[in-house]
Design brief:
- Two copies of one chain form a homodimer.
- Chain A is α/β, with parallel strands linked by helices.
- Chain A contains 35 helices and 34 strands.
- The longest helix of chain A is centred in the C-terminal third of the chain and has 26 residues.
- The interface between A and B is large, with 60 and 61 residues.
Chain lengths: 885, 885
């Protein structure tokens, strides 16, 4: 067993020995090696803690001898002696694990402060009250941590003394009473717990070490580790370090500093300090600290820059040195003891998304880090806050419920449960949030009228999510925490069962999925200038193309503005389900002859052509993949008797016949029903009209296009062969009719069923590309439907039956295997086969990394996720180079 | 180009050259080689036909030279010459493809009958009328087949001549008019089509060959091939053979014979003949032929055995010779020309299921074939008719619709659409068929009361199918040809839209899925004695164990009587859904606390224990696999408002709360919902009570048991680990409570999701066996649900997008790959892991063969399919030895 000393510009450990020395110990060793002034000390390694527990909570053999060596080093470095009445050495004993567990473990300050040393400290500092108060603090901490006595015991004593003196809370104890407190404490400890604070300073150190080791296993530490997935057998390191005092009168101070502004990312020393104070005073909130730099000056508050220019300069020098050496923005703790600056801690600084982007780019520009490192520095997920409006972080709203972040943004409005009411109230100037169980084609106008949409069911690709993203509306879906009663116009919170009526003000955060009560302040989108630079670097670095899902021109526009390489998936269902067309679609579905159906689709043709023309125009020659109709018939089924009557009249069909037909068509499992290319093969008119509309639109718009025609839900090669022939034929026919040269295009398929993956070689014979539909593929592979999983999937995640939600992060073990198989077999049959992946999982950086690893050519994500995917793809490329392929 | 001669005990071809010579030509070559008397002839091979078409419908180079050689052979063999006025040679020119296409192609008889030859034939036969009539027949056939003139042209001439003579239909033309017919024919052919029948006999042969080649591509032949999946490029062989005449006066006859009775299988010559007739007279139906053998004698009809003992003896000799040589029962065509027996054709005889079994066993016992061959001789599918009542084959019922053969048997009863009415009418003594869209727990008593069940939706494993099989009721499900209106008490036929009301007599055939109008005669089950022998041989030969699905003791009993090796799958849902328990299940599902739920399941415990005890007793120590509850919650959801009210009262819960809860639980895709082990993990009480009931029952019954506990719908290893621990714990606890030694058991899982296959190695760590659930696995792999596939799967099969229904035959290409993968990985992780497969596909012999090939240990099929599976498994073993593993 050994210890690792540091101080005086030397260190036996180093900054990279975090596993051994803990974060704190490694940081101190690193600083000392860099010549940064740190109070000398030594660190007991984590294996000492493990040995402590292995040995039944006793100090392991040889450890004390090592501690004695460490203490000797500190005594020499500070030219002080433990317990010395003239120049007493005081030390702090602090925990410090390899993984950050803030506030979970214990610390004891001022160890060594024996009664004799108190007098020495008083004399030396010329401040008797300081010495007495230090003693008090020591006794209280020691009693709690080293002796295990409940803090209330000594607190009661202190209050009793205060009461006896007739002092209110506002007044501090006079020195005379402070001086008597130790005796009162001593009596109380004996009376309550039959323990004493040792007067031998070495016995104090030993008891402090044991106390801090034990704090590894307090109940709250155990709970924290369980919640954060930290193993219990890591153990903590313990650092014993000479005390320095920021409260030794004028010229003394303590504070925290960031090497750059953690909010804006600006390059200047940023932080706060308190003159004549100890560290805990800064963080306690009892005092308002002063800004360090003149740039942050407040009226009436001094700055360190002004009041102690020398210390400020020294701090700036150290900050620069540490940032350069450690290659990241640092969060520093320091103490100035009578003019001498001592650093107590350094660590990578937490910062705002804004600052994260700016500092990464600027540090790369300054040459402190390379661009790859800069790319890895930014958490892709955090970009959302920069590029979309979000709830103000300082607003501290009351979060009622949490759903899926289906479409970003932050909006407030009154809850309305009926789409017609939403239209009415919105026309009357009210801001409305439409709340529904799920939405369907009937809700289209309501969604248009609303500023946001909230549903209690449905996933990231539910009707509400798709429509809201298409319209750029903020949307939270699948919010299982609420029960919506549309008929009564109210919703109930599942927890607490509060009932919220129509008209209640709500705020939605579509970036986090949070539903808040009232009108909460929001911040607009405002990315820093560095954002564009970083995205440029990401684009240069990534191998994956990033395309966006977009069902209409507006959405396509947003996607391209956010840097999409093209439109990876245009779902034409949306065009069909738009409010004014759903009745046409119903006519088509219920038509009892090919001729009737053809007549209906002919009426759809001009509408589709217009939609496609707008899209192609907006795409401006970028790739655009159009998926042919993939509509579960179920979804357009009229559910109300009146709707059925209307439709029967439209079709001149007896209601009874229609009702019978509807009954036959109603699927018990719509996902596995009559949809995708099954519809295209059995109702060939539908795809014909779509393909015609697409190629006529391309000729109408003119110019060069990159059109990909996507056939949905293929499970056997023959489906693809037949539809490919038909599509090719129809495209040629359109060119022929117009006397125009044929518009170039490719035909490929969605890979959404396990079978498609297994027979990918056969399918690839007829497909120019594969687009994996990760949602449906996950659904089928697991036999889980996202919409129905609410009763058990949360249980599975909480109880770790599953490590993560496979609809959020692609399941590498199962679904990922199928994707790999399909790519391998597909490319074996058709070398160079283009492969992409779409689905809600593309919002997850780990999934993007998977896509990179398996050699996909592109991902297609929601428009608003494009920047996140671009960065995640770049990170995957950077990380990928380090690993074997 | 060559031809293959035969006759006079020699042949250039042989019986196994079917691809080259067609069935007919190969048969003739084979017979000739065996020394059986066949009229000499030669065969043009199928490649001649292909060359004919490749060369633009002309005879290929060198073919005519070969034909001349063939003709020379025949002339010499018969000592006759083509066109010879004294001893003319007449030949038949017949098509004969490698695949049987009965009646689809053409034949011309009496080719060579020039006007001069007619006189020769008349003189030689001493029967002028015979010669004239032969000439007439020749001209009519030649005109139609070789000259392509519509048959009505000459028919009109014949009628005109007859009318001119004032003759009715009943009278034959006098010889003088018959003699003038050729001139009239000649004139009509010239007038109508400007063609002539050549007088050069070689020109006749050439034109006849071309005509018969062309008959390969007539419209009806093309349609037949399309319907039967026969490739169009096979081509037909053509056999040119010396004519022999059964109508050359006394001592001449023609007939057909079977080497054994094709109905009973009895070993004796069976067949019919007509004296003084040609082949077409026997099959035309214009004359009633006489029996060959005395054993089949009818009053007033002669038998060949009596009237020509020599010919009969020769025929018997030839029949025995052919059967022994060809190793199968033969279907023969023969002609006796003036006392000489000539064989015209031999082929394997079509026979009844009964005869198939009996002849296979008897021929093996006689040593004609070995037992392996006998096993291959019987089509497993046909056993159904022997072991279950079936519709009488002679009844010729009107088939209204066709559904899935869900539970075998044949019953008649009146259609009733309401389960309560079914109970009432059955109690009043009526025989009732319950007709429903689908059935659910509410229909239980109605199903019990009915003799048969018919549903318009649902597959082979729907509720109706499971319950009916459990009760041994005849059942047809998924009958998409009818639309059931339960409310109105009627059903509509989709084709023709006839409406059938309550009370209509129907007959169901649960073995074929046919729904017939009226009370149709049925035949009881009556397997021949040889059946048991054959099954014994099958059991000795097969490697696969054949277990049965059985949900209750009665079904288990039937399965074991049919030779099941054990119960491979006992689905406990059934026990839960039984009529008197469904309300308990609902209470369980809607219980709002663990305590309430536990109280409910405690009430279920004694019922389950009783069920299990009965099953274990009936299993008598044979293996029994009990699957824990796999109930989609959806299925027990009350759908009517009153039911909800009742349930709310039972649970002392406000109706509103219950309605809300039901809404939350209602899955949009039940198959992918909260079911299987997901239920077991989230509602642990349910499996606990089931496991307790099972092991308490085992101790109650006593004796040795082979219990397998099956965990349903596992998708990740962690599910299996947890449930295995719980099951093991509960089993130990039961033994402990009783102070009994623990009942041995194994724990395994259903493999029903693609993911389970992909992570099979991980799952096998916690599973003693895998039981593949082929229905659900197919469903997920294809994203097709059987119940919803009616709108497109029939289209897919008709249009050959899919080669077969993957719910009927296991999809080797996709699902089969997953099964292979799972077995390999599972056994790699746990050597010797037992693997079985259940699902509707086990009814298909090809699926059984697949199971054998991939090394499964067992299949578990419906009880009534056990004999079929036993035989199919034996066949797979026999066939498997020939192929590489």
């Amino acid at each position: 067993m050994r210890v690792y000393t540091f101080g005086n510009g030397t260190a036996e450990g180093s900054a990279d020995m975090i596993d051994v020395l803990g974060g704190k110990g490694a940081g101190l060793a690193g600083m000392s090696r860099l010549g940064v002034p740190v109070p000398p000390g030594f660190t007991l390694p984590t294996d000492a803690c493990r040995a402590f527990y292995a040995g039944g909570e006793t100090l392991p053999d040889g450890l004390w001898e090592a501690v004695e060596r460490g203490l000797a080093f500190v005594e020499q470095a500070r030219d002080r002696r433990l317990g010395d009445p003239a120049r007493p050495l005081l030390v702090s004993v602090r925990s410090g694990a390899a993984v950050s567990m803030p506030g979970m473990m214990d610390t004891i300050l001022n160890v060594g402060l024996t009664p004799a040393a108190v007098e020495g400290l008083a004399a030396e500092s010329g401040d008797r009250r300081f010495a007495l108060d230090s003693h008090r603090r020591f006794l209280e901490m020691f009693a709690e941590v080293a002796l295990g006595v409940d803090a209330t015991v000594l607190q009661d004593v202190r209050e009793a003394v205060r009461d006896a003196a007739g002092l209110g809370d506002a007044h501090r104890l006079p020195d005379s009473m402070l001086a008597r407190l130790p005796d009162a404490y001593r009596a109380a400890l004996l009376r309550h717990a039959a323990v004493e604070v040792p007067v031998d300073p070495r016995a104090q150190v030993e008891a402090a070490l044991i106390g801090v080791f034990r704090s590894w296993n307090t109940r709250r530490a155990l709970r924290f580790r369980r919640q954060n997935g930290i193993p219990d057998d890591l153990g903590t390191a313990v650092t014993v370090q000479a005390m320095v005092f920021g409260n030794l009168g004028a010229g003394s101070a303590t504070g925290v500093a960031f090497t750059r502004d953690p909010n804006s990312g600006a390059r200047r020393l940023f932080g706060e300090y308190l003159p004549e104070a100890q560290g805990e005073d800064v963080v306690s909130g009892a005092f308002t600290p002063y800004p360090l730099s003149r740039a942050d000056a407040r009226p009436g508050a001094p700055t360190l820059e002004d009041s102690d220019a020398t210390a400020y300069a020294e701090l700036t020098r150290i900050a620069d040195l540490l940032e350069r050496a450690l290659g990241d923005v640092q969060d520093l703790e320091f103490t100035i003891e009578r003019g001498t600056v001592w650093m107590l801690q350094t660590r990578a600084a937490k910062r705002s998304a804004r600052a994260e982007v700016r500092t990464a780019v600027e540090m790369a520009d300054e040459g402190t880090i390379d661009r790859d490192t800069a790319l890895l520095r930014v958490d892709p997920e955090r970009l959302t806050r920069l590029i979309h409006p979000s709830v103000d972080l300082h607003a501290r709203p009351r979060v009622l419920a949490r759903g899926l972040p289906a479409s970003p943004g932050a909006v407030s409005g009154i809850a309305v449960f009926d789409p017609e009411e939403a239209v009415r109230r919105s026309a009357a100037g009210e801001r409305v949030i439409l709340v529904r169980v799920e939405t369907s084609a009937e809700d289209m106008e309501g969604i248009r009228a609303a500023v946001g949409v909230l549903t209690s069911r449905g996933g990231m690709t539910s009707h509400a999510a798709l429509v809201a993203r298409g319209l750029g509306r903020c949307c939270v879906t699948g919010c299982a925490d609420i029960v919506v009663n549309e008929r009564k116009g109210q919703m109930t919170l599942r927890k607490g069962s509060a009932v919220l009526e129509t008209g209640t003000w709500l705020t939605l955060d579509g970036g986090t999925g949070e539903v808040m009560l009232g009108e909460v302040a929001t911040s607009p989108a405002d990315p820093p200038a560095a954002f564009a630079t970083l995205m440029g670097w990401a684009d240069a670095r990534r191998c994956l193309e990033v395309r966006a899902n977009a069902d209409n021109a507006a959405e396509a526009g947003r996607a391209l503005e956010l840097g999409a390489d093209g439109i990876g998936l245009c779902r034409t269902e949306h065009m069909f389900l738009d409010y004014d067309r759903v009745s046409l679609v119903r006519e088509m579905v219920f038509a009892d002859s090919v001729a009737t159906r053809r007549a209906v689709v002919e009426r759809i043709l001009p509408l589709q052509r217009k939609d496609f023309a707008a899209l192609l125009e907006r795409a401006g020659g970028k790739v655009i993949a159009v998926r042919l109709l993939d509509l579960p018939l179920h979804d357009v089924m009229p559910s109300q008797r009146e709707e059925l009557s209307d439709l029967a009249a439209q079709l001149s069909m007896p209601v009874d016949v229609l009702v019978n037909r509807a009954r036959v068509m109603r699927a018990t499992n719509p996902v596995m029903g009559h949809r995708g290319c099954r519809l295209g093969l059995t109702f060939p008119e539908v795809y014909e009209i779509q393909v015609r509309a697409l190629f006529e639109a391309a000729l109408d718009v003119g110019g060069a296009h990159q059109i990909e025609v996507v056939v949905p839900l293929v499970t056997c090669a023959e489906e693809m062969h037949r539809l490919r022939r038909r599509i090719t034929h129809m495209a040629a026919r359109v060119a022929d009719e117009r006397g125009a040269p044929p518009v170039p295009f490719t035909v490929g398929t969605m890979i959404e069923s396990p079978r498609a993956c297994l027979v990918a070689d056969r399918i690839a014979e007829a497909a120019d590309f594969f687009l994996f539909g990760a949602n449906d593929l996950t659904s089928a592979t697991f036999c889980i439907h996202r919409d129905d999983a609410g009763r058990y999937l949360p249980f599975y995640l909480e109880n770790e039956v599953l490590a993560y939600d496979p609809f959020v992060r692609l399941d590498r073990e199962g679904v990922g295997q199928l994707v790999r198989t399909a790519i391998e077999r597909g490319r074996a049959a058709r070398p160079g086969l283009a492969c992409g992946l779409s689905g809600a999982q593309t919002a997850d950086p780990d999934t993007i990394a998977f896509c990179h690893e398996v050699g996909l050519d592109y991902v297609s994500c929601a428009a608003h996720r494009v920047p996140i995917a671009r960065l995640a793809a770049a990170q995957a490329a950077v990380r990928g180079e380090g690993s074997s392929p």
